[in-house]
């Protein structure tokens, strides 16, 4: 049966012709019905799928929900740079020109090229995308509130990383705008020819472009461009440090959080980038000289070949890590113009509050190598591990290594049963954690304190349901009394998208609530907690005269920092005893090209002198022979017998 809308209309309003008031009421209700039918879906469409307008174009995001079931919005896979492919490989990023029309920002984009834990290549060179999460994009003259912005720089030893791993569901309960992103890693992110051909630090320049993009665009997402906190873990923490000292990053952020890393760590800076570039060129059969020819050859090498080349030469687990930042040479307006230690100690630093710390057993990721060493050399595993560790992860080589080995063995393995695998593992984890993380973090906080920067130190010591180290080894093979490993705190800040992630019990959720509250309070106010309570004690600034740290475990509390001796054993004592003055390392690295030039000059001069000496000796020898020959002729003619002429 066909419904005639006109008859329906007549029926509604002509049914009671003698009651005009009722007819008017029905008319008003009918109009309201039509308005609700058409306007509500339109309004809901804008609310559920919010839109923002940028200089690049229009974006449409999608709704998401926090762990506490609050709504927020995600804008995923926003391009911030042109794909760094072809002629743009090994060059600074070029801002993305934008798009036409409306673009749906609903899905994550590919990570940058890398090898996963199984050695399988993943990702794509077209990877320079970012994600923005915001509580709201609706701004009116009556509601113009802007949220503090937190920018996370991912972990991964400068060789791996994927922004899609860091789910925002935990931290978005705290009233902030969160930005995550991909940047170039490995050779594609950090190859350097140590001159203007390829100055390096491409991954850091990607990060810089993200911060510039945020300054220009984040207000469209209800983010406050005058309240930006950068935070990172591991290699991401070292990156945060480099932004602290880079003149190019000035004014782009206002607080900094460094989790388990610093630019002063030995693993965070490549001391001889040209030597490493030569190794890569030889592996891939590229011409080594001139340098620009090597770079042009590597620019067209398939991505997988580059990944395989950078994975060669590992000694202990993922170490050594050679695709890392460098001090740039041969260019102007450089991101890292001098050695980090020199820049920091000379006071060249972006003066912002700093929160920094470490996990108590960072290097549990060495456990597979510890077990292998114990199987191969039971009773001497600690000696092999120490030797391999010095080769892969420290500046101690050759004679300097010979000098420090006995000191290290005595410091960490004295009065220990060398056949007890648990003892060997525990002490080697202490050794490597002190050397790789605690020593450089200790040095960083002390220098920042001397520069009068507000700096807050934490120690994370909670082992919960999830652990990063369980991605590479079964929990059954790890001692049950171990503490948190490198990256474990991330499970309490983000909803980590890893196959090993498990649902958190109540105690884990409390730790998560505390650490996200501390981190976001710091982002909002420059200190934490905002309000002191029995659960959230006052977090004292670091003071080198009375060093303290906030202990983050099953509860929170201020404790004395007791690792000073171990930290300085690595950062000062060993380097002094081995002949490596820690305060001269930066100058040596900075002056190395000059020393090489002088050395080759001296060699050239010496060879020239040697050639001149040989020529002079040859001339003298020739002259003496000529003189002897002439003298012989003269003597021979004066003593010839008188009758000798009759022989002819």
Structure write-up:
The termini are far apart. The protein has 648 residues and is an alpha/beta fold. Residues 1-14, 37-46, 582-600 and 629-648 have low confidence and may be disordered. It has 2 domains: 17-48; 53-377 and 433-594, Rossmann fold. It contains 16 helices and 18 strands. Helix 10 crosses helix 13, helix 11 (381-393) packs across helix 12 and helix 11 packs parallel to helix 13. It has an 11-stranded mixed sheet, with helices on both faces.
Total domain modules: 2
| Fold-level CATH name of the largest domain | Rossmann fold
| Mass-distribution shape | globular
Q: Estimate the mean pLDDT confidence.
A: 86
Low-confidence stretches: 1-14, 37-46, 582-600, 629-648
Number of helices: 16
Instruction: Please identify the top-level CATH class of the largest domain.
Output: Alpha Beta
CATH superfamily of the largest domain: Alpha/Beta hydrolase fold, catalytic domain
């Amino acid at each position: 049966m066909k419904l005639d809308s006109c008859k329906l209309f007549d029926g509604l309003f002509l049914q009671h012709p003698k009651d005009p008031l009722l007819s008017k009421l029905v008319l008003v209700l009918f109009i309201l019905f039509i308005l609700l039918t058409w306007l509500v879906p339109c309004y809901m469409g804008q609310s559920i799928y919010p839109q923002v307008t940028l200089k690049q174009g229009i974006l449409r995001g999608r709704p998401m929900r926090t762990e506490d079931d609050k709504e927020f919005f995600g804008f995923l896979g926003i391009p911030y740079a042109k794909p760094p492919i072809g002629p743009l490989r090994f060059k600074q990023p070029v801002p993305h020109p934008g798009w036409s029309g409306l673009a749906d920002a609903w899905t994550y984009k590919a990570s940058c090229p890398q090898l996963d834990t199984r050695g399988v290549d993943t990702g794509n060179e077209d990877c320079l995308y970012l994600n923005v999460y915001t509580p709201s994009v609706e701004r009116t003259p009556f509601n113009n509130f802007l949220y503090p912005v937190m920018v996370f720089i991912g972990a991964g030893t400068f060789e791996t990383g994927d922004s899609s791993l860091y789910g925002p569901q935990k931290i978005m309960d705290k009233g902030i705008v969160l930005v995550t992103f991909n940047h170039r890693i490995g050779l594609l992110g950090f190859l350097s020819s140590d001159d203007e051909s390829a100055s390096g630090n491409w991954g850091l320049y990607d990060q810089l472009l993200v911060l510039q993009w945020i300054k220009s665009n984040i207000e469209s997402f209800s983010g406050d461009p005058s309240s930006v906190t950068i935070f990172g873990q591991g290699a991401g923490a070292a990156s945060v440090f480099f932004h602290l000292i880079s003149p190019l990053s000035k004014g782009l952020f206002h607080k900094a959080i460094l989790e388990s890393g610093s630019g002063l760590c030995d693993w965070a800076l490549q001391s001889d980038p040209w030597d490493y570039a030569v190794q890569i060129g030889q592996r891939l059969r590229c011409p080594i000289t001139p340098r620009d020819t090597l770079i042009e050859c590597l620019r067209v090498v398939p991505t997988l070949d580059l990944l395989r080349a950078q994975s060669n030469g590992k000694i202990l687990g993922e170490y050594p890590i050679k695709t890392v930042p460098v001090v740039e040479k041969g260019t102007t307006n450089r991101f890292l113009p001098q050695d980090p230690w020199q820049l920091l100690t000379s006071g060249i630093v972006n003066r912002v509050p700093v929160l920094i710390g470490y996990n108590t057993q960072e290097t549990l990721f060495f456990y597979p190598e510890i077990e292998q060493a114990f199987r191969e050399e039971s009773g001497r595993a600690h000696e092999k591990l120490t030797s391999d560790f010095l080769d892969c992860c420290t500046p101690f080589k050759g004679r300097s290594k010979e000098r420090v080995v006995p000191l290290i063995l005595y410091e960490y393995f004295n009065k220990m049963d060398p056949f007890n695998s648990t003892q060997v593992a525990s002490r080697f984890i202490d050794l490597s954690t002190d050397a790789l993380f605690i020593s450089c973090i200790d040095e960083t906080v002390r220098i920042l304190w001397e520069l009068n920067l507000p700096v807050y130190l934490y120690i994370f010591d909670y082992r919960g349901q999830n652990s990063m180290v369980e991605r590479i080894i079964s929990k059954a093979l790890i001692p049950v009394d171990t503490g948190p490993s490198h990256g474990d705190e991330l499970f309490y800040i983000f909803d980590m998208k890893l196959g090993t992630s498990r649902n958190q019990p109540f105690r884990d959720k409390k730790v998560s609530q505390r650490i996200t509250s501390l981190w976001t309070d710091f982002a909002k106010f420059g200190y934490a907690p905002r309000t002191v309570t029995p659960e959230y004690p006052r977090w004292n600034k670091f003071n080198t005269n009375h060093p303290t740290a906030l202990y983050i475990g099953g509860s929170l509390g201020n404790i004395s920092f007791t690792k000073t001796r171990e930290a300085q054993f690595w950062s000062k004592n060993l380097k002094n005893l081995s002949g490596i003055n820690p305060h001269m390392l930066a100058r040596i690295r900075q002056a190395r090209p000059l020393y090489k030039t002088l050395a080759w000059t001296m060699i050239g001069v010496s060879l020239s002198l040697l050639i001149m000496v040989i020529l002079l000796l040859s001339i003298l020898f020739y002259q003496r022979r000529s003189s002897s020959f002439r003298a012989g002729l003269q003597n021979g003619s004066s003593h010839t017998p008188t009758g000798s002429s009759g022989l002819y």
